[in-house]
Amino acid sequence: MTDAVTVRNVNKDFPVGDEFVRVLHDISADIRLGELTMIVGPSGCGKTTLISILSGILSTTSGEVTVMGKNITHMHDRDRVILRRENIGFIFQQYNLLPALTAAENAALPLIAAGVADAVAVNKARGILNRIGMEGHTEKLPNQLSGGQQQRVAIARALVHEPKLIVCDEPTAALDAKTGQSVMHILRDIANDSQRAVLIVTHDNRIYHFADRILEMSDGRMMGDFKPQDFIHRE
What we know:
7 helices, Rossmann fold, alpha/beta, 10 strands, 34% helix
């Protein structure tokens, strides 16, 4: 298997009053293992809706979605939760760290939620934090960390359960250029693993060159699949 995710002819409607509005139109795309894929496009074009569907958070109106070889289109909600817990790590623009927990405890939360003993989970999280440049900061609370350090905690939290797919929603938008580049080097290294895929939704043209492929969306439609150098040159 070379695809972490396949999306085929997906449409999505949302109710607005007594009518339905179509926000995704016949979307098809592949997210491949061993690649860093970016989805770009203007606000409101459907990017977040699409990643919510391929992550099993939203259902399609029509079309098919396969994640790590499993068709999730008609999957029961409980089975989707299990699939996300086992296969997907999420990184958001807002770090969503719990203020009363240390960096290591925050990063350990997915393992603790899966039933791993607290001490074992925190120790594993501590090891991941150390590997991504957080030595000396693992026992600090979020308010003792910089924005870039908090984003690294969020990355560790997404990696701690060893998911195959890392989904990032604007991971560098709240960071300065230097810190954003540092975070992207970490995500780039993750994507170099042939058994993992990294998917990033972004407006940040400072990071386009880290991608293997750029998928452009507009008005709920997939407009093209580009090599980053071609997309950057076109802009």
